[in-house]
Amino acid sequence: MQYCTRHRTLYFRLLISLFLLTNAYLFLFPITNEYRTFHLSFKKTNSIADRIVLLVRTSHNCQSRLNYLLQSWISTDVLKQSNLYLITDRLSNSTNLTLFSSFQNVIQTGCPETHGRNDLCCKTAHEFNLFYNLIYTKPNLEWLCRFDDDHYVNIKNLYKYLSQINASKSYYMGRTSISGRLRASNSNRSYSFATYGAGVCFSHVLLKQLRPHVHIKNLPVDCLKHGLSDDAYIGYLTECILNVSLTSRNDLFHSHLEKLETSFRYFNLSHLSDSITFGFAWDRYKLDWLPIIHELIQLSDRGQKKTANRLWLFLRNYEKEHPENFKDKYDESCISYQRLRN
């Protein structure tokens, strides 16, 4: 009898244990699923677009240029601009305040309002400083790509290209500014640099190395001390101080310094569709072309290549056949350029 009682007690304990294990499993199962879902969701949002900071530099003298960017490569939906930032010296008037409401992130630097070295080097320092501030809240950032307000940027091509590059290495990439190399004034070393007029990208590892050299207070002073423009000084720092050479992609990044006779007039639609940037020299800085170029690329991306090619050939041939319409043009959207011509 005692044996049966012990047996029933043991059996009862086993049933209780089984019941508790079953309930524990049912209780934990939803948590496990939720945990998996969280990780899937994290990977989904961690796209290349989330890992790149896009900076566009403008000034209050040229802010009307931004209309052309909104008509072409920058989305007018501010919710899609989370990693895009405008850098300017100041906002100038109520018209421009209305224009700037189309952008989610606007940084006023308080830098000088000229187009001189001090102004440009000051803005460059603020561009780097913005990235260093952002990484505290967005530690997954891998790239900083900066552009001017007269650039067309093919975002799709930029994302595709950078997604194939290992950002855990030091990368400084863009278009070689001049054919020759500059010689450093304080040594026998020489260096090449990426023209800011074509857009430049930096990996986060290189940005970490640059940090001690590009402080807001020091960089403008050092630029002037070396007698260099902002992009040339960054090339000097990168190659001569940090021993990181420029990754030159002249096939993908295009500058306003390119001569029309050797670039745009001989481009075909493939060149147009495959490039990342155009720093605008199409008809000597008249930015009316930007929305047209965007539409050409959109037609091509939608598979309407025949239509896009016909339009492209018409535009290109028109420019060749009517040079009088493009002679001595200048950027009418910039007050500073108008002042220089008067």
TrEMBL record:
Keyword hit for Magnesium: no
This protein's UniProt keywords: Glycosyltransferase, Membrane, Signal-anchor, Transferase, Transmembrane, Transmembrane helix
Protein origin, superkingdom: Eukaryota
GO cellular component, one term: endomembrane system
Membrane topology reported for the UniProt record: Single-pass membrane protein; Single-pass type II membrane protein
Family: Belongs to the glycosyltransferase 31 family.
InterPro entries listed in its UniProt record: Fringe-like_glycosylTrfase
Protein name: Fringe-like glycosyltransferase domain-containing protein
Pfam families referenced in this protein's UniProt entry, alphabetically: Fringe
PANTHER family: FRINGE-RELATED
Localization of this protein: Endomembrane system; Membrane
Positions of transmembrane segments: 12-31
Keyword Transmembrane tagged: yes
Organism taxonomic ancestry: Eukaryota, Metazoa, Spiralia, Gnathifera, Rotifera
UniProt GO molecular function: glycosyltransferase activity
Organism: Rotaria magnacalcarata
Domain Fringe-like glycosyltransferase: 50-284
